[in-house]
Each structure stands twice: as structure tokens, then as C-alpha cells.
Write a structure and sequence with these properties.
This protein has 378 residues and is α+β, with helices and mostly antiparallel strands. The protein has two domains: 43-258, no CATH class; 261-376, Alpha-Beta Complex (Sulfite Oxidase, Chain A, domain 2), CATH 3.90.420. It has helices at 9-17, 43-74, 86-98, 105-119, 127-145, 152-173, 181-212, 226-258, 305-312, 335-338, and strands at 261-266, 272-275, 282-289, 294-304, 319-325, 330-334, 344-348, 353-357, 369-376. The strands form two sheets. Strands 2-1-9-5-6 form a five-stranded mixed beta sheet. The protein has a four-stranded antiparallel beta sheet with strand order 3-4-7-8. α2 (43-74) packs antiparallel against α3 and α7 packs antiparallel against α8. The longest helix has 33 residues, at 226-258. It is elongated, with a radius of gyration of 33 Å.
Amino acid sequence: MSLDDGKNEQDRKSERTGEIPAHIPWIRSDLIKQKKKAPYFQTSDLVIIALFSGLGGIFSTYIGYFANLLNSLFGIPFGGGQFLAGLHIFWLVFIYLLTDRKTGVILTAGILKGFIEFFTGNAHGILVILLSTTQGFIIELILIIFLTTKRNSILSLAAGFAGLSNVLLQQVLFFNSQIPISFIALIGIISFLSGLILGGFFPISVFYIFDQSTLLEWRKHKKIPSRYSRNFKAFATTIVIILIFVEVFVIGFLASQNTHSIKVTGEVYNPYTFYISDFPQITIEAELIGDVSYEPPRNYSGVPLYRLVDKAQPKLELFNILLKANDGYSVTFNSTEVDNNENIIVVKAETGLKIVAAHYHGSYWIKNIATVEIVQFT
């Protein structure tokens, strides 16, 4: 009898295939022929997250600077660049689509993108890490709630709410009672629409173009129906037109409101922006007598100048109050003559705020005041 005769058919099969015989008692049967499971995040996923988070972080830093430039050009404190808010979210959604819509990708990309923005000099400083992480978290949360659906509309709505979170989070952290709620609501609407279009439908459309080409064949994605492309173009065009009109309206509205505000600065503990509606007003009678102009006596309603000064909390006992207009014209009062003087008031006019100074020469009735500065008494 040969050695082979003592082997059963299973042993012979194991020798041919190189497998471990199942009848060996010290080998666990559940380990036999066990294949190693592929990791949830594959190497290609990690490369995509790192690459596009880096690109997005650098791009978002310059988008932030561009938004600040718009604010400066239009002379408004905020809101000039909110129609671009969705471009910050574009990268998070695009990465999500490239990695086969895996849970956790958007949050991971948001955190990484936030750090890259911080280290590339984003104007928000370290706060940008919180902003970017929150955007990723909100999208992830909404997608988890609607886990049973793969609809792109849900993804786009999640991107819209992520855009809105930028405005809401900054208001929570830096609440300013001088900013009307209507302003915040308008900016929030713009941010939501921008997130919906530029952060939602736009990256989905870009992914559709990639997916229709040969660039992503190695990912084996399912094709997006062509009907979506047609619907996207019609819907996105309509929303973009609405978004542009809303943004133009808000910029004009904010710019007009900004002409009726004054920055109070200088040697003070509490520099702030003055809005006439934040202070109680009084009514006085005054007559303008200038070298070339005259206005007969009539009633004016406004805020006494000393109230603006008191709220700023001057650091000096004696000081001058320098008022500058938008065109560069300026006048100076000293603290002694302004203190508790209700004959010098700030009045709202059609083009801005002006001074009505009863018993003063007409040259002191400065118009379109831009700043009130507390300076050293001379």
C-alpha cells in the first residue's frame, strides 16, 4: 500500500490547491480560506481626500480675501461675498462623490480643509477650522438622517444648510446687537442659495461630466441619468439669476445703510459703529447761518453728540472730538463744549448723517459724517 492510499480525497485536493486540510483539529475551521477584508477607506479614497482638501483649502483662503475686497469696494461691513459661500462647500461634496458616497468622508475632508485654510493664512484665523468642520458635520448629519436615499436633491439641500451655518455660527460667536436681524436673514438666504447651487448642484454637475468621460472608469461609478443634466441646467440657471438679483439688492441695501452709520474711534476703550436708531432722540430748534448758506429756524430731531462720545468711553479727561466727512471735510469740537450739550446733535439726512449745531457757525454743520475720532486735546 502506497503512502497515497492512506490519504482521503479531501487531503489530495488540499495538496493540489495548497489549502489547509479542514480535518486538522488544531486549525480553526472559520479561519480556513478566510480572505482579508478590504479597508473601508481605500488608498485611492485617502489620496482623493488629501488632494482635493488641499486644493479646496488653498482656494477657500483666496475666496475669503476676495469677499473682504468686495466689502471694502462697496463700503459695507459684511455680505459682499456671501454669494460665493457655496464654493467653500464645493470641495466637500465633490470629494464625497469621488469616494463613492462613503459616510465620514465629508467630515474628514472638512476638518482637513479647515486646517489647510488656517495654515495658508485665512482671514478668519483659527476660527476657520471650526467653520469648515461644522459645514462637514452638518452635511454628514443630514445624509445620515436620510440614509435610505441617494437623491442628489438631499445632498444639495445639505450643502445649502452648510452654507447657512457659516452665517449663523459667526453670529453666535460674535453677536452684534447693532446689526439688524433683517440683515442677518438676507445674508443667510444668500448663503443658503449659494450652498445649494455652488456647493450642491455645481459639484454634482462637475462629477457628472467626469463620470461620463473615461477619467473615472477605474472607480466604476454608476452613470447619472442624462435627464438630471437637463433638469440641472434649467433649475440652476433660474436659481443663479435669482441669487444674483438678491445679492445686488443686499449689497445696495447694506451700502445705503452704511451711509447712515458712523465709526467712533480714537483714544477710547469702546470703539464701535454708531447707528442713530440705537439711541433716544431729542428735538431742538436751530438756525443755520453760514458765509454762503442760510436756513431759517426749524426743528431738528437727532442724538446729542455727547451720547456718542460717552458710549465710546474716552481714555482722556480733556480731548478733542474730530468729525470727518466722506469727502475729507472735518470739524473739531472740544470735550468741554460738547459735554451734556444738547444743542449739538447728530441728525439723519437723505445722503447720510450730519451735525446740527445750534448757535454755531454754519461751517460746523458737517454733512455725511464717516467717523468721530477722540484725539489728544491741543
